[in-house]
Amino acid sequence: MSTAGKVIKCKAAVAWEIQKPLVIEQIEVAPPKDHEVRIKILATGICGTDNHVLSGTFAVPLPMILGHEAAGVVESVGEGVTCVKPGDHVIPLAVPQCGNCSPCQNSRGNLCTQNDITRVRGLMPDGTSRFTCKGKALHHFVSTSTFTEYTVVHENAVVKIDAAAPLEKVCLIGCGFSTGYGAALQTAQVEHGSTCAVFGLGGVGLSAVMGCKAAGASRIIGVDINKSKFAKAKELGATECVNPLDYKKPINEVLFDMTDGEGVDYSFEAIGRTDTMIAALASCHENFGTSVIMGVPPSASKICFDPMLLFTGRTWKGSVLGGWKCKDSFPKLVSDFMGKKFVLNPLITQTLPFEKINEGFELLRSGKSIRTVLTF
Ligand code: PAD
Ligand code: ZN
Ligand code: ZN
């Protein structure tokens, strides 16, 4: 029996409060309105950003359905949707691409003004929610919300991908992989033969390591306080790894020592802490070094730093979702994965049934996982 046009009752993991486990609830998912798409989620990764919300460092309105790194199948579409149809395999887009705003029209931009990241409203573009639980409306997360069997997104926030692609792998293209890989290849534009340092060797940082390697960097230094991350970093292209806890000096001085007093050409922050953002900046060459922030800054945080770090010529950049224009790029990244241009398997350390979502978060927090993929 077709579910199109009807409310769907299904399971979702609801974030009612910060610093509390998610609760698997039965929720109601309304049909898609005009220009909206309802998706049956089949696989979703757990990203550090979902964890920042639960830990309280990334402030969002609650209750909310988190999750944003996913893949699924279109269940039904609202009036006027032409980009996808029921049955299409898709990736929801945490950064939409409307095609009309100035970032969409600028060749270097990707942060479409329709995004719900810079000022999280937690609603569909029309200001309402498609989710209810126990009579209460639930917020959406960054245009996606994927910790649910069904979600509704705007047509600007979904893209069709190759139906042959394994959804439980390519879901990582929805966030973690694309973020790190794109930060190296597009935002920093790492050059052949250069020296790079990647701060934080989780799913995002390891993907930046892969991007630096793909760009032909000759030295890639991984930095993490959890040395159990080093073996995988080396497997993916890091030439050496350092643990800041092993040194008395600040890590930026250690990196200068390791590079004959020059500093690295490119540094990447994939942690989400202000002190490591400054350390990454200070680690790169004082004149032509570039440092890229990928870690989501804690809400309402401020950075105080010596402006001499920039005066001498360093470049400090940020990168959301690797700078990719998501609608244009994600299907190509999926094709590249299918064409074996990069791997995703090493990033997926656990695959768990959706019901074990809190276990997946525990694995991330304890440093025992890179990516847990939840399947439905
Ligand atoms: P993760 O928790 O898997 O990885 C973080 C890594 O940082 C872990 O290996 C930690 O051991 C390490 N770490 C923690 N503290 C320190 C420290 N003081 N010094 C060195 N290493 C440390 O998360 P992730 O890889 O999924 O995400 C990393 C960040 O990137 C996080 O802030 C997340 O919110 C952000 C992110 N940004 C985007 C974007 O579009 N810019 C996309 C996805 C994730
Ligand atoms: Zn746009
Ligand atoms: Zn993410």
Topology:
Layout: E1 8-14, E2 23-29, E3 36-45, H1 48-55, E4 69-77, E5 89-92, H2 102-105, E6 131-133, E7 136-138, E8 150-154, E9 158-160, H3 167-170, H4 176-187, E10 195-199, H5 203-214, E11 219-223, H6 230-236, E12 240-242, H7 251-258, E13 266-269, H8 274-283, E14 290-293, H9 308-311, E15 315-318, H10 326-338, E16 348-353, H11 357-365, E17 371-375
Parallel strand pairs: 10-11, 10-13, 11-12, 13-14, 14-15, 16-17
Antiparallel strand pairs: 1-2, 2-6, 3-4, 3-8, 3-17, 4-5, 5-9, 6-7
One zinc ion binds near residues 47, 49, 68, 69 and 176.
Protein traits:
376 residues, alpha/beta, Rossmann fold, seven-stranded mixed β-sheet, six-stranded parallel β-sheet, binds 5-beta-D-ribofuranosylpicolinamide adenine-dinucleotide, binds zinc ion
Span of the ends, CA to CA:
20 Å
**Structural class label:** alpha/beta
What share of the residues does DSSP label as strand, in percent?
15-25%
Oligomer: single chain
Helix content: 10-25%
Shape: globular
CATH architecture classification name of one domain: 3-Layer(aba) Sandwich
| Chemical compounds bound to the protein | 5-beta-D-ribofuranosylpicolinamide adenine-dinucleotide, zinc ion
Rg result = 20 Å
CATH class of one domain: Alpha Beta
pLDDT averaged residue by residue = 98
As residue ranges, the low-confidence spans are none
- What is the CATH homology-level superfamily of one domain? NAD(P)-binding Rossmann-like Domain
Q: Tell me the CATH topology of one domain.
A: Rossmann fold
Largest sheet: 7 strands, mixed
